[in-house]
Design brief:
The complex is a heterodimer of chains A (232) and B (87). By secondary structure, chain A is α/β, with parallel strands linked by helices. Chain A has a single domain (4-230), classed as 3-Layer(aba) Sandwich (Rossmann fold), CATH 3.40.50.720. In chain A, 38% of the residues lie in helices and 20% in strands. Chain A is built from eight helices and eight strands, in the order ααβαβαβαβαββααββ. Chain A has an eight-stranded mixed sheet with strand order 3-2-1-4-5-6-7-8, sandwiched between helices. Chain A is globular. Chain B has helices at 9-15, 30-40, 44-47, and strands at 2-7, 19-23, 58-61, 64-66, 77-81. The termini of chain B are far apart. Chain B has a single domain, classed as Beta-grasp domain (Ubiquitin-like (UB roll), Roll), CATH 3.10.20. In chain B, strands 2-1-5-3-4 form a five-stranded mixed sheet. Classes of the chains: A alpha/beta (232), B alpha+beta (87). At the A-B interface, strand 5, strand 6, strand 7 and strand 8 of A face helix 1 of B.
Chain lengths: 232, 87
């Protein structure tokens, strides 16, 4: 049951997917892997949408050059709070009715099982394919949907992996690009792609709409195009 | 036969156009088309495949994701897009 306060807080989205959808969000646990350019808008919108439990995973501490895009980190967090903790206090102020959990550390084969136990959806907000493939393997092992997003410059891509139904991330990007330490990126690009990822999560949990399953959305803000490629 | 090639994101800047037509022999495969594109736009040699391990290209044919061995037909629209990796 939703409280009167929740009915008011989520009034504008209850008009989309109803109280049943909102209760599904409230009962969901979503892992946001990487709390940077993509993870910031993803965590912010999922918090605002009332996802009951959000697990933030990152090992880094915010740096000044992060602040053009990583909107959950502020000047006062620099070189102080690891990104999950930097994000947590703001998200709790935004929505005290939900629970923000944190994992400060690097995911690897040894710890991913414990770190991501009992999550309903995984959101890939990482900056490298090595760890993405670790998520891909884990998602398939546990049959958990994985929302992939990536950005560079004014370009980005989103697709939703549903184990057993869609191609794996490894199959979509067999020759994955290497990690770039200081890749160019406009904050607004991460905002667009992260927002689409957040919408994917809400669609997956509520059952409303059509996720980008076996579809790769390619966004080019430089030349103003949104294209969807069928993956199967 | 004629193939229309569309370039996405960074590739659009490399090619200098968003799309263009190629006159190609019958039975040509995606990888052969890539060779033709690299001949026409030498800059792609630095961007794609073996020449640079960090580079990559994904290809769709008429809106569907395909691999390099896919055979093309007259009138196909082939799109090339570089996957990005940042977060």
């Amino acid at each position: 049951m939703l409280s009167d306060r929740e009915l008011e807080r989520y009034d504008r989205q209850l008009r989309i997917f109803g109280e049943g959808g909102q209760e599904k969000l409230k009962n969901a646990r979503v892992a946001v892997i990487g709390v940077g350019g993509l993870g910031s808008p993803v965590a912010y919108y999922l918090t605002a949408a009332g996802v009951g439990k959000i697990l933030l995973v990152d090992e880094q501490t915010p740096e000044l050059s992060n602040l053009n895009r990583q909107i959950l980190h502020w000047e006062e967090d620099l070189s102080k709070n690891p990104k999950p903790l930097s994000a947590k206090w703001k998200l709790e102020k935004l929505n005290p009715d939900i629970k923000i959990e944190t994992f400060v550390g690097h995911l690897d084969e040894g710890n991913i099982g414990d770190a991501l136990q009992d999550v309903d959806v995984i959101v890939d907000c990482l900056d490298n394919f090595e760890t993405r493939f670790l998520l891909d393997d884990f998602a398939h092992k546990r049959s958990i949907p994985l929302v992939h997003g990536a950005v560079e410059g004014l370009f980005g891509q989103v697709t939703t992996i549903i184990p057993g139904k869609t191609l794996r991330l490894r199959e979509i990007f067999p020759r994955a690009p290497g990690k770039k330490e200081n890749f160019p990126i406009l904050g607004a690009t991460a905002g667009v792609i992260g927002s689409i990822q957040a919408a994917e999560v809400v669609k997956l949990i509520t059952g409303f709409g059509e996720p980008l399953a076996n579809k790769l959305l390619i966004v080019d803000l430089e030349h103003n195009s949104f294209d969807v490629v069928e993956l199967e | 036969m004629k193939i229309r090639v569309r370039y996405f994101a960074r590739f659009r800047s490399v090619a200098g156009v968003s799309e263009e037509e190629y006159e190609v022999p019958e039975g040509i495969k995606v990888k052969d088309l890539i060779d033709l594109i690299q001949k026409k736009h030498p800059k792609f040699k630095e961007e794609i495949f073996e020449q640079n391990e960090d580079a990559d290209v994904n290809v769709s044919r008429n809106g569907k994701y395909v691999d390099f061995g896919e055979e093309l037909e007259d009138g196909d629209i082939v799109a090339l897009f570089p996957p990005v990796s940042g977060g």
